[in-house]
Specification:
Elements: E1 4-8, H1 30-33, E2 40-50, E3 61-72, E4 77-81, H2 88-95, E5 103-110, E6 113-114, H3 117-123, E7 124-127, H4 139-150, H5 157-170, H6 191-203, E8 209-213, H7 221-235, E9 240-244, H8 250-253, E10 258-263, E11 266-272, H9 276-282, H10 293-301, H11 311-319, H12 322-337, E12 339-344, H13 351-368, H14 374-388, H15 400-416, H16 422-439, H17 443-477
Parallel strand pairs: 4-9, 4-10, 7-8, 8-9
Antiparallel strand pairs: 1-12, 2-3, 2-5, 5-6, 10-11
Helix pairs in contact: 4-5, 6-7, 13-17, 14-15, 14-17, 15-17
Amino acid sequence: MPDVHIPVSPSADVVYSALDSEPNIPTLTAEKRTRNPCTLSWSNLTYTVDVKKSTKHPEGKKAILTNITGRCAPGELTAVMGPSGSGKTTLLDILADRISSGTIEGSISLNGEKRNAKTFRAVSSYVAQEDSLMGSFTVSETLEMAARLSLPSIITRATIVRRVQTVIDEMGLRVCEHTLVGDIFRKGLSGGQKRRLSIAIELLSEPSILLLDEPTSGLDSASTHNVMEFVSKLCRENKTVICTIHQPSSLVYDMFTNIVIMTAGKTVYFGPRELIIDQFSGAGYTCPMYMNPAEYFLSLVNSDFAGHANINNLVQRYASSTTAATILQNIEADTAGVHTAAPVVPMKPSALRQFFVLMERNLINNVRNPGIYWVRLAMYLMLSFMVGTMYLSTNSDISEQDMVPLLFYVQAFLVFMSVAVLPFFIEQRAVFMRERANSGLNVFSYVVANFIAILPGIFLIAAVSTFLVVLLSVSTASGTSC
């Protein structure tokens, strides 16, 4: 694997790693285990997609983002807010390098140097809006499996367990450590606990940059506050955290370092939270006393309803403001002051290790999840018994030709009933997509492990169904009682 490097910010003198405090493990070179605080910046970011030509889009292009510029430094918690369709999730996906279609213009920099995809994925993690978890595992089991799939192979099992226990404490999951995540058959974690577990999974690799898409979506106010309190604590560990959020409460709003207000793919404001009220007041929009600033600003930029502000005026005023100029100066300073660190090898477990971990996880999930085998097996047993007794009280002279429909039934029913496992396949697919994007899961290891793990259950179902049908039919044909 070719070496890549992480540009070091001039102000980032402290080097930290998840391995620094772990005794009795193989020593990594400084280049391979260094995690530097990272500054993420982007300039004149424009994203367009192809659409059908119309009077509104005569060129067949639609701009989702237009000239977006911003900068997030270590220790800062940045909130990206805006009405639905404002482009905030698209911006986060582009920053996370998860956009594969359309045209992206502009530049994205990591510590002042053009972002390298491999480098960025080595130091960042992305938490999607939907929780992609397997319901048959407990919190500690989920974290341990995730750690074994993402951390380097040289890290011992004991070290992984210690790291998992540390993350459980950091995210306040100790109370539900041995609770199943839960699925349609069993009640498990609450929405807030699932959200914290999703974040905890990405913290196992000690990312310098954490990107969260709607971390409070679907949560009540208490759970929202708890989740964001844990997220803000990560910033005190010198991490760079960017999240999209819908209309935070006043308490949550005060946790943010920077506020981004977007509408129609344009930046209305990007800067320190303390300066946003003055920025809008200068445009003639003073936030009423005792009103949540986030609610007020979002109501101003929501063009779907009457009473919104002059959007173009707000965009132009911000573009010419000292706040925007300061961000540009900081981006230029990052570029001018950058120097390159020693090469860093993005480390991940071997394909063989991932294969064995996936085999173990799939076998456990197949046994614990009733919907994968056990419900289907019960249905096969009942229907096989019904079909196998079709010839009771009939002529006992059953030929081999009469047995053909029975055997055909067994094969056809096995095929048709395989659709019953589709809901759980969708769950596993979501987990696979997350692990593939964030931890570089080996596709070949996943496919082979999944294939081998399902063979015992399929063999059991096929053998029991065939044996029961044939046994009952033969017993009937020979005149014995059933």
